[in-house]
Amino acid sequence: MSKRGAGRAGLVLAVLLAAGPAAAEVQVRYATPERFTDAENRFASGQPLRVTLAELTRILVDLGNARLRSDERLDITILDIDLAGFDRPGFASPTGVRVVTDATPPRIRLAYALRRGGRIVAQGEDTVTDINFLLTANPRFSTGGLYYERQVLRDWFARRFPAGAERG
């Protein structure tokens, strides 16, 4: 092989290595988000719906990339969202606040299908929640919004999609 050919092959290899391993594909859809139980800023006490959905999508894609194999594709359809806490209009401020108690856990109802090589290897519908969410999530050490929702989704991913080697 000439020096020029070897240089090109090395460049292609370097580009492939720099790109890192291929990530799993995660597709997130929202079924009638305007009808979700509690996913938007009703009394100016939180994020607008589009911000909540964008953050939830980011969380799910990040979790999928961390847990799924590169040859897997996960399709998730969010059927309903009930954020942790409840809106309290006019409470302590003119715009209201979101009050989070142990009686108001986050609840996300979703349908999913995991594909490997184009074949569905797992699918179902789950309601993701945790009545002990205040004991397991600590927003002081978290960045971004949806602290409690992120924690229950992380736990769901760990249960539903164990590490790649354990799934075969």
Please, could you describe this protein's structure?
A hairpin with an 8-residue loop joins strand 3 (86-88) and strand 4 (97-99). A 4-stranded mixed beta sheet has the order 1-2-5-6, with helices on one face. It has a two-stranded antiparallel sheet with strand order 3-4. It has helices spanning 3-19, 49-67, 133-136, 147-160, 164-167; strands at 25-30, 72-82, 86-88, 97-99, 107-116, 119-129. The protein has 5 helices and 6 strands, in the order H-E-H-E-E-E-E-E-H-H-H. Helix 2 (49-67) runs parallel beside helix 4. The chain has 168 residues and is an alpha+beta fold. The two termini are 40 Å apart.
Separate helix tally:
5
Low-confidence runs of at least 5 consecutive residues = 5-20
Secondary-structure element pattern, one letter each? HEHEEEEEHHH
Largest sheet: 4 strands, mixed
SSE topology sketch:
Blueprint: H1 3-19, E1 25-30, H2 49-67, E2 72-82, E3 86-88, E4 97-99, E5 107-116, E6 119-129, H3 133-136, H4 147-160, H5 164-167
Parallel strand pairs: 1-2
Antiparallel strand pairs: 2-5, 3-4, 5-6
Helix pairs in contact: 2-4
